[in-house]
Amino acid sequence: MGYILLALFLIIAILCYLEDYIRKYQKSLFFLIGLVLIFVAGFREIGLDPDSENYEYTFQNYFKNGTDEMIEPSFLLISYILGLFTDNVHMLFLIYAIFGVSLKMFAFRKMSEFYFVPLLCYISFYYVLHDLTQIRAGVVSGIFLCTLPLIAENKKKIAFFILLGASLIHYSSLILLPVLFLNNKPFCKKTTILFLCAIPLGYVVYYAGGSILMNPSLPFIGNKLAIYQAAVEKGKMTVGINIFDPLHIMSIMLFYYLFLFKDTLTKLCSNFPILLKTSAIGLSLYSAFAFLPVLALRTSQLYCIVNILLYTYILYTFKQKWIGISFVLIISLLLLYVSIPHYGLGMMIILN
């Protein structure tokens, strides 16, 4: 699988440099790559990633043996319908891949003028994390990206019901509801100060500590988080989080780099303000919730899905496009370095 990912990465990287010369074939190649990504995610080998064996067991045995595990209604419905025809879990993977990959690619086309640069950022990390591993969260992250333009257009009621409905796919979508309080207005003096301070504030919250979020009485997520945390403490599940992790620090540096160009990028990219604000929330939550690693990783990863598009906008900060592409390529290579070995999730949550 690692070789397949590397081959796709190299092909997409080459297409990034050739994009201006192959305009006639952009849509066809974009569509073809999407099909390949769906096929790879749908028919990957069981046991190659941290979650596939768990999915297979649940898919084949949930209705036979019964369980007290809280599983989202959509997963049960899809599993039940597919179970009438087959016990091959790859059909389940394929359905989630179709929605997860397609929704993200739709969002890329809506919020970026580039075809292949967003794909480069996507396949280097989030494709592996979400669409090859946390498949339910993968669909939710795609839905989330698609709702951001609605929020930017102040169609917040529609976005609210979409995110609420997404909780049927994965309860983590409820964590995304605070984004409804954001807007797409250009940064003024107050919002500039607020979002500049958001990430340092996350570190302050971490060092202040907290335990309320581990309360099992919290609806939907409290009990699951408590179970995850207990598993970590007993050594049954490994979750490592370092608030000064080099990858996290790199993300913070890129956030502030983009912030320097906020006025220019706001003029060039209509959805830039809300994407940058969303990224600020994700990066701050990583450190703020680090005392509960499961929550920190899940929330931060969902919010920071917008970094795929934000890193694409880095191209606008260079006069020569090829230099911008090369800069993004280096970032993507670093992300790929993290994600390829064992899907790069040995340090992250292994239950979905």
UniProtKB/TrEMBL annotation:
It comes from the Bacteria. The keyword Membrane applies. Keywords: Membrane, Transmembrane, Transmembrane helix. The keyword Zinc-finger does not apply. The chain crosses the membrane at residues 6-22, 29-47, 77-99, 111-129, 159-181, 193-218, 239-259, 274-295, 302-318, 324-351. InterPro entries: EpsG-like (IPR049458). Coiled coil: none annotated. Signal peptide: none annotated. This is EpsG family protein.
